[in-house]
Amino acid sequence: RVPKAKIRQRVKNALERLQILEYVDRYPSELSGGQQQRVAIARAIVSEPELLLLDEPLSNLDAKLRIDMRSELKRLHQELGTTVVYVTHDQIEALTLSTRIAIFFEGVLTQVDTPINVYTNPVNLRVADFIGNPSINFVAAKGRLADGKLHVQSSLGEFAYTAEEFTDEPIPEEEFDCVLGIRPEQITVTRDARNADCRATIYAAQIAGSETLIQTQLGDIKLLVKTLGIQQYDHNQEIGLRFMPDRFNVFCKSSGNLIKRAQVEEIVQE
């Protein structure tokens, strides 16, 4: 019961969004796999549904087009106000497209939260290890409660955290094994090791254009560091490491659960 002129306009808008308007007169057999997948998405959105179910809709697209389509789906979600249930194994898609993320392991719902909270404060070691590219660093440590604070001793040094940073997870009264969760961007490499938190050496450096991934060696521990831009280092070069301990996660090793949250800077909207 939609006027033909409006149908044509909706179809044109959907095809333009998916960048396939030029193929409007072709049969499905004349389209590539990626183009056919875009047609499927266009068919799903052309009627402007209130609820849209998408099961890995971008899996057959090349890397550049996948990024473009993420932007279009994000904009479509905001413009139409459509509720979208989006199934994906690509955590970048999950983090960039969603307003809330549900993480399942073996059919068990483990965490439901905003993308920023899932990334900065995963509920347990398994979620922390799963979310994030490059992967999070895990460092073994010892924890103890004293004077209302959680004192964490590791090869990186000793850190103290106040009760305001604790989760609802119970903390053992006696000294216990714990794990520090440190994102690669929470470590800074400095060429002058004298004023650093600790000294380390370069194990390997991978230049990826817009960023450099640096594998550092600290005793028997390897720490992955991510820096913006191109940074060149020599193998076994001595460097210094600086930390952001307030943004570290602390997990109880026995339960695997988060006991100390990372502090997150508030996003200010002007």
Radius of gyration: 24 Å
Number of helices: 6
Question: What is the SS-derived class?
Answer: alpha+beta
Give the tally of β-strands: 15
**Main sheet makeup:** 6 strands, antiparallel
What is the overall pLDDT average?
Answer: 90
What is the quaternary state of this protein? single chain
| Shape, principal axes of CA atoms | elongated
Strand order of the largest sheet: 7-6-5-8-14-15
Order of helices and strands: HHEHEHEEHHEEEEEEEEEEE
Poorly predicted runs? none
SS strand fraction: 25-35%
Helix content: 10-25%
Distance between the termini: 43 Å
Description:
It is a single chain. The chain is α+β, with helices and mostly antiparallel strands and 270 residues long. The protein has helices at residues 4-17, 33-45, 63-80, 91-97, 115-120, 125-130, and strands at 51-55, 83-87, 101-105, 108-113, 137-146, 149-154, 157-161, 176-182, 187-190, 198-207, 211-218, 221-228, 238-243, 249-252, 258-260. The protein has a six-stranded antiparallel β-sheet with strand order 7-6-5-8-14-15. It has a five-stranded antiparallel β-sheet with strand order 9-13-10-11-12, with no helix packed on it. The chain has a two-stranded parallel ribbon with strand order 1-2. The longest helix has 18 residues, at 63-80. It starts with a helix and ends in a 10-residue tail after the last strand.
